[in-house]
Amino acid sequence: MHELPASPPAAPDSAAELAAYCAAGSWPPGWSVHYTPVAASTQELAHAGAAAGARHGTVYLADWQRAGRGRRGRAWVAPPGTSLLLSVLVRDARLPPFAQTAVVTLAVCQVLERHGLAPRIKWPNDVLLRDRKVAGVLAERVDGVEAPYQVVGIGLNVNYGAARDALPPFATALDWELGAPLARGPLLAALLGALHALLAQPAEAWAARLHGAWLERLWRRHQTVRLALDDATLEGRVEGVAVDGTLLLREPGGPLRRITVGDVLL
User: Fold this and answer.
1) Tens digits of per-residue pLDDT, 35-54?
2) What confidence score (pLDDT) does residue 68 get?
3) Are the C-beta atoms of residues 161 and 155 closer than 8 Å to each other?
4) How many CB atoms lie within 10 A of CB 56?
């Protein structure tokens, strides 16, 4: 377990340094990264790119978003220079729809584990460190077009330094957990490499082994949680998550419930 340092050093890379890394970066075969210092939303950039014919593995990255989006209409706010804020266009993946989102959180976990951290996945698609949110994933699927696609947005808190009030109490950043800042460029390259490998897996790989790897990292598995639905808050024991992403929750003294939309509360 990592002790939370009192005041980590300043972030190691500016927007200009991140831009320089992206210009010279080595990405997975067929993938590309389009960097802009400021964007309204990288999700919007990715959807526009998809409409213009951008191919699978096109990544849109910003240092700062004016109107970043999270799940269920929430805003994603991150000061300049602190985070990895990106959206990935997914076209060619053979994995089932939920798996295409789930392997993003799995890729984040794999990269953080290389730094000695112990991330957990909070259903459906947040990544936690020591019960605090360090990353979130937003998936937006577009069907009914000639070439259906999915845009997967990732927000990862990297370097917040002494700015303790820049994140809510239930969130954390990598430099706070590690006691030292991380350069965002190499971190991005590692994340895209892990994601490329997972998205390239055949459809049967999800049920055969990737779902199990994802479940091993599920936060509060076999423990009691509170779950926010649109019109109620439930409490129950997390029995698992089905291969289609359905949360399996057993209420006290009640039957097993299958939840498709909701938020497990911190």
Assistant:
1) 999 999 999 999 999 999 99
2) 65
3) no
4) 17
In this prediction the pTM is 0.93
- SS3 assignment, position 163: coil
Rounded to a whole number, what is the distance in angstroms from the first to the last CA of the chain? 19
175 and 158 Cβ atoms separated by less than 8 Å: yes
Domain count across the chain: 2
The reply to whether 6 falls in a domain is: no
CA 234 to chain centre: 25
Tell me which of 176, 194, 216 is where a domain ends: 216
Read off the pLDDT of residues 98-138 as tens digits, 9 standing for 90 and up. 999 999 999 999 999 999 999 999 999 999 999 999 999 99
Do 29 and 140 share a domain, yes or no? yes
Burial class from Cβ neighbours inside 10 Å (0-12, 13-18, 19+) for residue 263 reads middle
Beta-carbon count within 10 A of 235 CB: 12
